[in-house]
Amino acid sequence: MRPIIRKFYRIIQTNDLFFKVFLVMVVSIISVSIVISYSTIQVSQNLFMDTFTITNTKVLNQMKSRLEAYSYAVVNTVNSMQTNGTIKRVLMEEQLNSIETAKLYYEMTKQMESVYTEVASYGANMIVIGKNSRLFNMNYSNWPVTWDELQHHAVTTEALQSPNQLLIQSTSENGEPMIVAAKVLLERSTENRYGIVYISIRERQLREFYEGYTTEGNKILIVNDEGQIISSNDQTMIGVTDQALLHVSREMSELGLEYTDVHVFDKDYMILSEYLPTFNMYLINLVDKRMISENLLSKKEIYFIIIGIIVLSVFIIFILLRRMTKSLTNVVEQISNMAKYHFKRPLVASGGYETEQIANAFNDMLRELQEYVDLVVETEQKQRKAELKALQHQINPHFLYNTLTSVKFMVQQGDKEKAAETILALITLLQNALGHINETITVEQELTIIKKYVLINQARYGERIKVHYFVSPECLPYQMPKLVLQPFIENAFFHAFNKKKEGFIQVMAAVKDEKLLFEIVDNGDGMDLEKVSLSSRYHGKRQLFHGIGVRNVHERIQLLYGKDYGVEMTSNIGNGTVVHVILPLLTNELSKKSTIF
User: Fold this and answer.
1) Which residues contact 216 (CB under 8 A, 6 or more apart)?
2) Which burial class, exposed, middle or buried, applies to 167 when counting CB atoms under 10 A from its CB (0-12, 13-18, 19+)?
3) pLDDT higher than threshold 90 for residue 475
């Protein structure tokens, strides 16, 4: 198993360019196909839902108009019953002989038939009861009820509590839902109640108003003011109470929304709602968005088309890329072998025009590069040798003149011992400067030279600037390049105390994280590093050396030891300057191997 894996890995490694480009192309094709397909489906769904919403809104308005027409017919019928004198007389007469009773019943029937005609066209039934226990039912099979049953019925109770209103309520007869409009008949002058008129319609008859406009995913509901569904093309919903549905319908009516989304009955629907003021109910249209979308688009067909396009595209890309990258892979292999074994051997061009041009251009570049490398190496070596040698001999004559003048005054004043000590310190400095600049010395020797330099300056200018040394003993044997720390001590002496006349300089050395760390700190004037040139801060007539600034020291350290080492400096005006010098831990043997030339 492992040899197979290694072989497969080598194939991938050898054809790395092909697999990378091929993978990018495949991912791009698949991503674009998915995004375009998704966008197309979404746009189609949104467009269809918008169109579907407009259509359903019109249909819902038609349903509302039909229900309002029925409501208008009920109101007209009730008003006609209220104003009919014959009906009033029949319902109020209590003791009549058989002939009079028959005559009244005949007249009552004729009057009710004329009034009943308008609501009869909707399939509704009309019943009238009087306080004299008379009951007249225009369609007994529609609602087979007796006077005693009606007298104690909930519809009657509600009607008697609001005698001046036409109340429309939902009830049931033998388990079948009904919608009943009831109104108490009153004598206008005395407000005397002489009967009640009922106009009832069964739910299946009410359903005929809208059933032709519904589908499985497009449901119509009529919900009363208690949130109960009293009519729906989905029979399983009738009688169910859903307060969330009622709340959304009321909110839509108050805000004037045409449609919104709602989650009811464990599904996501788009809801359209119209308020029926006469019925005090809501006509609601629930659209199952998922079912409508599935019927609109055949996603399986779209997926098959996408897969077919992807497979065909990937096959074509595979063939083209393979032909294109095979020759490039050959060139890459030659370049790889050249870097390891045959740097001067030119590439052998093969394959297409582009590959040949690349190989020829590379061969030309290779020839020129070899010439330039030889020239640059030689020039760089000469330049570095010249620069470092020049630094070695750039001893400031002013420094020598001022130091010797100070010695002269010491001798004249009779302080021969101090004069001799100063001359010895100067000799030590000159010996160190005139030696080979690429030689390394120990930390202990570098500190000795710094102390000699400090001695000369304090002999010339007094001891207004104190120098303190905090050196870990373990640092002393390690090697370091010459002239690394001294430029910073010079800078502190001659530039850090122009405004402040007194202060101190601290020289610290320690070993940390396998590195040799130095820190030169002064409490002098400080400076703005952004405004002051790093190298120009170290030029001055009173200094021992010209041009050995922060940048010189930093570049020299990095040239010798690499980018992990060098100089870092921070300074704040009025708070002094801190210089960090980072060097590797070098013994005498290691330091010999790390020189440039």
Assistant:
1) 288, 291
2) middle
3) yes
